[in-house]
Amino acid sequence: MPERHPFPWGLHALAQCLLVLSITVFSSKTSIWTRWSMFLLIAGISCYLVCYTTTGDVTVDQGLGTAILIQLMVAADYILITDIQRDIYPKDQSQRVKGAEADISLMKRFRRALSLYTTPRGIGWSFEPRTLPKPSTKPRFAFVSSRIARALAGMLIRTFASVMVNSNPAMSGNTLSARDMGWFYHTAGVFAFALNAVAQINTVHCVLAAFCVGVGISGPQEWLNVFGSPFDAYTVQRFWGRTWHQLLRRPLKSCTIFVVTKILHCPTGNPYTAFVSLNTVFLISGLVHVGGEYMMLGRLGLGTFRFFLLQGLAVSVETIVSNVLTLSGSSLASPRKAPPPTPKLWVRIVGYVWVLLWFWWCLPFMVDLGILAGTYGPHRGLTFERLSKLTVNAYHRLAMDV
């Protein structure tokens, strides 16, 4: 295991500044050598941060490692793959012709770069996904109040999920896997892990939304819900494409197209090309999330990588079964332009059960890494036993005071 140094936050900030600078100043006239030099500089910083530094907290390390490699993937998209000044534009404008970015002032380009960097889902931009939740119509004060309330609720849910995880003997280092102590502790551990992840992402999003809208940086319509409806998740494909956050959709799609068309040279229109694209998306996503795993463990565990590779397999099987049974009419080779009709209720119920069972089975690949790193357990915080003792002690003190 390489020697780990204290995490240099200034170097991490420098990598982000270099990315924003690249988005600001690079144009269609920028040479490929300049682009590669900047990308390799950011890549070098990112690799050093993930492989040779630590914050001293395994939970923070896991989140930071993933975020750093996500930033590297965004850098590959915006610096190497995409002509950022020409191919990305506000969705109410037409695409620019090559060289038109010369007419834009440096300050406008800087504001544009900041907007792109802080809007990973592309809200208001040409690559905004059509499957995002509808924008809020609430006035500013009502929107800020609702997001503050959601953030507080998210904190309570995170606390409850943490207590569940820390109280679970299957996740406290007694075993190597959440599966090893029976279905009950397996189910409770997976549920708490997923609940904590959703609550954490949603809480951070609500805090940022309340702040930015409250101080006037942006409007309520720019802060769509970070997650879609759980009722859309009657297939694994719909879970990842509609219910789960779409924060990585743009760089994943861009990098996948580049790999499939420029590196693998897969012809368009062939049945296997869509299959390769689908699995490449999850392959890249797995590689990105390996950063958090490595920074947390100090070595490769590959549990997260296996988890994401399995998602591509599940979606592929779903598509084959769907085509055979003609439930949705979708096709890997030539998907419909119009969305398929909503399946019947019994089909969706079967789908919900399938999705729940699928994640019940495959999520331990991610959960088990936390067991190895000591992320869970009584040493990490409150458990139900400690909470009950605190409650009883508080009750007795109150009774004595009365």
TrEMBL record:
The keyword Transcription regulation does not apply. Coiled coil: none annotated. Residues 223-310 form the Wax synthase domain. This is Wax synthase domain-containing protein. It is a multi-pass membrane protein. Pfam families: MBOAT_2. It comes from Laccaria amethystina LaAM-08-1. Its main location: membrane. Keywords: Membrane, Transferase, Transmembrane, Transmembrane helix. GO terms for cellular component: membrane. Belongs to the wax synthase family. GO terms for molecular function: O-acyltransferase activity. It is found in: Membrane.
